Amino acid sequence: MAAGTGTDEAALGYEEARDELIEVVRRLEAGGTSLEESLALWERGEELAKVCRRRLEGARARLDASLAAERAAEEADGDGDGDE
After folding, report:
1. What's the CA angle centered on 35, arms 29 and 39, to 5 degrees?
2. Architecture of the structural domain at 10-82
């Protein structure tokens, strides 16, 4: 399993990165790999974990922005109805 480049990582969706990370962990836990291969797997796992973290943070930011916009719209509707 080759380590990905930044471009490859940017193209990975959350589910793809998560699934590959699960496979990396499975291979590390199974053992039977050389030290060099284990280190390469570990490094790939770190990269994949960062991709997952960034994707989740992005999703959280979009959700927070959507909720804030919804609250602002509700407050604006509430202000207009309450003054009449």
Report:
1. 75
2. Orthogonal Bundle (1.10)
